[in-house]
Structure formats: C-alpha cells, structure tokens
UniProtKB/TrEMBL annotation:
This is D-isomer specific 2-hydroxyacid dehydrogenase. It comes from the Bacteria. Pfam families: 2-Hacid_dh, 2-Hacid_dh_C. Residues 108-282 form the D-isomer specific 2-hydroxyacid dehydrogenase NAD-binding domain.
C-alpha cells in the first residue's frame, strides 16, 4: 500500500490545490482534470467530486482505501448510499453553497410571472406594444409553502419575507425553523397545502420524496396554485403535473429540474404557455469553488485529525 491519495475530480485553481496540499502534506494530490498520472486506484482515500466510473471501481474493490467523498452538490441521490454505508465511507455534500443563488432564482421567476415580465419578453420579441395579454398580480402577502427548510429554504424564507411574502415550511418532523411563520411535517402537507398560493419544492430525492407531487398532491392544492421545483425532477410525476396545468389546478409552474434531463424535445411542457423552463441553472453560483473549499478544508482538517467530518456529513440511511 502506497502513499494515500486525494483525488480532485473537480478541477481547482493552482492556489486552491496548493491550499489542499499544505493542509494534507502527507497525501499525494491528483488533479484529474489537468493530469493523467499512473496511479494505484486503491490508494485513493479522499475524493473531491465524484468520478462515477472510478468511484464504482473503488466501491467494488475489496482493497480500496476510499474513506471519504466530498460531493459538489447538495443532493446526493446519484450516489450508491447503501454501498457507502456497507463500506463505512463518509459522504459530505455542498449544502449551503447554493442558498443565495437558488433563492434569487425562485424570486426571479415569481416576479417574472406575477408582474407580467415573462409575457412582455415575448411581446418584445414580436415587437408588440400591448397590455392586452399581460396579466399581473401582487406578490406581497401571498402565502408561500417552502417544502424543505434546510439552508436553501431558510435563505429563501428570509428573502421572500423582504418582499412581504408569508412563508410557511414543511420538513420531516414539523419542527419550528427560523424564518417561517409555521412549519408542518411531511405527513401533514396534503392538509396544509390547500391554504397556500405558492408551493416551492427544495427537497432532496429520497424514497419518501420520489413522485410525492402526483395527482393526489396537486388536487389537494388550492385551484390556481403557483408551483416551483428547484429540488429534484423525480419528485414530480410529470404526467400528473401536465394534467394539473391543463385543468388550471396549477396556474403556473417554474421548473428547473426534470424527471429526465435534458428535457426531451417531445415533452408537452415545452409548448405550455403557463410553464417556465430553465435548464437546471438555479444553483449556478459565482465563486463556487471558493465556497466549496470552505466546506472541504475544515472537513479535511477534521478527517486528518480523527477520521470524522466537521460539517455537511450525510446520514447515509436517510439520504440527506
């Protein structure tokens, strides 16, 4: 067994690599996007980012030293969490990095819809000066249900309250969280959702959240509800969503994630006037790598100290 390796699948700047090297001087640092050195894969102990093919080989290896993976995303539904648990591999996510970006995205699409901006963009492209097809509503005092009250949900609640929106939350137990008038448990969501004007999904994908937005859930909502998904696409039954939009049960949907990505060209969502499609961009964040290092470096120091993590560790049996 050779010198342990830190495998950087996410390309970092030279000075960032040097920071990692100084923090872990006993490790060999492999920048996978810049170099293709010969290496003994089983010596990889830490991976920043997830190389699916290499990662699968390490999970299948009986002699792999892989002990910790730092994900670059908040959601970890693409990882084989059961195998991670079986092999005792730690997993941490990038929760918190995307909070401001996703919160701004949600408010941006809401303002575009409520103030008629989306329609005006279309009118401008057609060189039409008209108010006839511009609808507008007041966003202030609307009731917003934020489904997922973690870092992103809390940040969104703070921003939304600045616009006079009334914010309510849904989480696993219904525990009270800062920024919300009231919070409810998942099991009570179908009862409270009928009182809300806007529903925003920010949940990770787990067995419990898979296709939780189905015909039953949409019918439980107030007719004309606005729905936004910046969580995970498979949390929605797309056919049921299309039906709810066609019947007016939902007045508008802003969708950044989908069951299948890229969204197929034959999807009816493309041509629906009450749908805004964005190509999974809500989490794009300036200075992303600097913010990622603010999670990775404290975790690296803690890992070197006692093989534990300082922040953002995933409970593998829960999926978040």
């Amino acid at each position: 067994m050779g010198q342990p390796l830190i495998y950087l699948y996410e390309q970092m700047k030279e000075e960032q690599v040097e920071t990692i090297r100084q923090t872990a001087p006993d490790y060999i640092i492999i920048d996978a996007k810049r170099e293709s050195p010969e290496l003994i894969e089983d010596d990889i102990e830490i991976m920043l980012g997830w190389d699916k093919e290499l990662g699968q080989r390490l999970l299948d290896s009986d002699t792999s030293r892989l002990a910790w993976v730092q994900s670059i995303s908040a959601g970890v539904d693409t990882y084989d969490l059961e195998r991670f648990a079986e092999k005792g591999i730690l997993l941490s996510n990038a929760s918190g990095i995307h909070s401001i970006s996703i919160s701004e995205h949600v408010l941006g699409v809401l303002l575009a819809e409520f103030r008629g901006i989306r329609t005006s963009i279309i009118n401008q492209a057609n060189k039409q000066w008209t108010r006839d097809n511009v609808s507008y509503r007041q966003l202030s005092m609307q009731k917003m249900l934020i489904v997922g009250t973690g870092h992103i949900g809390q940040q969104l609640a703070v921003f939304a309250q600045g616009l006079g929106i009334q914010t309510y939350g849904v989480n696993t137990s219904g525990h009270v969280t800062n920024g919300f008038i009231e919070c409810y448990s998942h099991k009570n969501m179908s009862r409270i959702v009928k009182e809300m004007d806007i529903v925003v999904n920010i949940l990770p994908l787990t067995d419990d959240t898979y296709q939780m937005y189905n015909e039953r859930m949409f019918l439980a909502m107030k007719p004309g509800t606005v729905f936004i998904n910046v969580g995970r696409g498979p949390s929605i039954n797309t056919n049921d969503l299309v039906q709810a939009l066609n019947t007016g049960q939902l007045s508008f949907a802003a969708l950044d994630v989908f069951e299948e990505e890229p969204l197929p060209e034959n999807s009816p969502l493309w041509s629906m006037e009450n749908v805004l499609i964005t190509p999974h961009i809500s989490g794009l964040t300036p200075q992303f790598k600097e913010k990622l290092l603010n999670i990775f470096i404290p975790n690296l120091r803690q890992f070197l100290k006692d093989k534990s993590l300082a922040k953002n560790e995933i409970a593998l049996h829960q999926g978040y």
